[in-house]
Specification:
Structural class: alpha/beta
CATH architecture of the largest domain: 3-Layer(aba) Sandwich
Helix content: 40-55%
Number of domains: 4
Shape: elongated
Number of helices: 23
Bound molecules: glutamic acid
Strand content: 5-15%
Radius of gyration: 33 Å
Number of strands: 14
């Protein structure tokens, strides 16, 4: 068959050659060892935590090596696409501090010399390479209908044969030019297939950056390169885009691992050098006694927006993901408490290849540790920022008085042993509800070891007694005086020596005041709380307490 005629018949509008594109997208000028990576989601509007994980790994490996990280949008599957499906993904990456160098940096904004980074706008590029394959006798049009393809699949299933269009099943492989021409003239739709040079006896091997050496049977299937609308399949677009964009490392979900033989064959047929591959194990969770993948449908925490809504500190989420990627991250953090996560040297070969077990409780703990080390001002700013979008009431309360807000977050924030009471910003309201009149609605958790008469006696005695000008030590001495006045032991030691001689000790006295003022048996620094609330409010609260218990 005259392949030039076939090329003209199928691609009359394609006048460029691959060479033209190689000139248009020249080799990058980067230092030795610099990695060029990309995150390449479909615009489904939904950023899965596994997507953020993959983006983070790609971003880290690129930036650690002085390379480039791109965001390419793979919108060749129109069935999966949702309206404005790009914003959610970009917003998610931006919110968590993943810096994008090239490609989509905002919904309507692309940067970089290797674009466009939207696959649906690259049809002509793919078709140019497809035409080139056709001219080399490595591609052909296939006119089989969906029914015919289903029949082939059914036969193969029944015969327990490898599924796909190959060998005796590849009916369109040997059509003559005349047959093809006739069908085209009749307007019969067709896909363009690779004429696979694969041999079922042979195996391919490659080194996966995460999993090490892998061997698999060579691809023998005549896979689809261009669909009936001329839009490429994932496989073909991957080979072309990652070549022209200069991707050095394709680091993607491990659902693609079985496609590597196809991809290597495509690069071979196109006479292109394949990138290095690494396949990331999925994020798993425990469900009862078994592990399963985090599911978009079943698990709210599968969505990155969940972490924004709950108010996890964004660096806390990223640090948790780094910890999932490389378990030595935790040691690094211990040794470098205040280091930025970007200072951690992430290593691809230390990543798990069997699935990372995701544990929200652990993430919350990491976030608690993180928040505990920050300044009260930082906590105030972050909580306010979160509340602006997710909790109007809290936003109003915090915004109304910054000094007061910072004071709350400063309770027990001593650098040696900081209090770890907050893991995410939606816990602020509940944690500090007693610090705001409008949120204070106590049920009063009473000290179990005291009788109500004594509780009332202590609380009543303190109604007019609180003196905000006393420093912490003076204030506590005054509580000791009060303990003595109501017949309690001044010192805990004294009480322990003679437990039958006293109804309680000074600690119980402070518990009564704590409960009267906060409604709770546990709180941070009581002296600070009283001081922040002020004498009038302390008095009002104790009066209410005495009345209500
Ligand atoms: N669009 C593909 C996906 O969403 C990208 C896979 C890749 O990174 O190559 O799974």
């Amino acid at each position: 068959m005259n392949l030039a005629d076939l090329g003209q018949l199928l691609f009359p509008h394609i006048t460029k050659t691959p060479e033209d594109y190689f000139k248009l997208y020249p080799k990058r000028n980067l230092p030795e060892g610099a990695k060029v990576t990309r995150f390449a989601p479909s615009p489904t509007g939904f950023l899965h935590i596994g997507g953020l994980f993959a983006a983070l790994i790609n971003e880290r490996l690129a930036h650690q090596s002085g390379g480039v990280f791109m965001l390419r949008i793979e919108d060749t599957d129109k069935k999966r696409e949702v309206e404005d499906g790009v914003s959610g993904i970009i917003d998610g990456l931006n919110a968590f501090g993943i810096h994008i160098d090239e490609g989509f940096v905002a919904k309507d904004k692309q940067v970089g010399e290797y674009g466009t980074y939207l696959q649906s706008e690259r049809a002509e590029i793919y078709q140019t390479f497809a035409k080139d394959l056709l001219l080399k006798g490595l591609a052909y049009p296939c006119f089989c209908t969906e029914e015919e393809i289903s029949e082939i699949r059914a036969t193969q299933e029944a015969e327990k044969e490898l599924p796909g269009y190959y060998g005796k099943y590849a009916k369109c492989r040997d059509l003559t030019f005349e047959q093809i021409k006739e069908k085209i003239e009749q307007g019969i739709p067709y896909v363009l297939r690779l004429k696979s040079p694969g041999n079922s006896e042979k195996r391919i091997s490659f080194k996966d950056g995460i999993r090490g050496n892998i061997e698999m049977p060579e691809n023998i299937v005549d896979i689809v390169l261009l669909k009936t609308d001329g839009i490429p399949t994932y496989h073909f677009a991957h080979a072309i885009d990652d070549t022209l964009m200069g991707t050095t490392h394709v680091i993607r979900g491990d659902e693609w691992i079985s496609s590597v033989p196809i991809h290597l064959q495509l690069f071979y047929c196109l006479s292109l050098k394949p990138p290095k591959y690494a396949h990331i194990a999925p994020i798993m969770k425990m469900d009862g006694d078994s592990k399963r993948k985090l599911s978009k449908r079943k698990d709210p925490e599968a969505s990155v927006s969940y972490y924004s809504e709950e108010g996890y500190p964004k660096d806390g989420v990223i640090e948790y993901l780094l910890n999932l990627a490389n378990s030595n991250f935790e040691d690094f953090k211990k040794q470098n408490k205040n280091a930025d996560w970007r200072d951690f040297p992430l290593q691809m070969n230390k990543m798990s290849n069997s699935g990372c077990l995701f544990d929200l409780v652990k993430m919350n703990d990491m976030c608690k540790n993180k928040i505990a080390l920050k300044s009260a001002e930082w906590v105030y700013d972050e909580a306010l920022n979160w509340a602006k979008d997710y909790d109007k009431e809290l936003f109003g309360l915090l915004k109304a008085d910054k000094e007061y807000g910072v004071k709350l977050f400063n309770f027990d924030r001593n650098p040696e042993k900081p209090r770890k009471d907050l893991g995410k910003w939606n816990e602020v309201k509940e944690t500090f509800s007693y610090m705001f009149d409008s949120l204070f609605n106590p049920t009063y958790e009473l000290p179990q070891n005291l009788n109500v008469e004594d509780i009332k006696k202590i609380a009543s005695a303190y109604i007019d007694r609180y003196n905000p000008s006393l420093n912490k030590e003076e204030w506590f001495n005054d509580l000791k005086d009060l303990a003595e006045e109501v017949g309690f032991a001044r010192e805990v030691k004294e009480y322990k020596q003679n437990p039958d001689s006293f109804p309680g000790h000074v600690g119980d006295v402070s518990s009564v005041i704590r409960v009267g003022v906060t409604g709770r048996m546990k709180s941070p620094d009581l002296h600070g709380i009283l001081e922040a609330l002020g004498a009038d409010e302390v008095k009002r609260r104790l009066e209410k307490f005495v009345k209500e218990i």
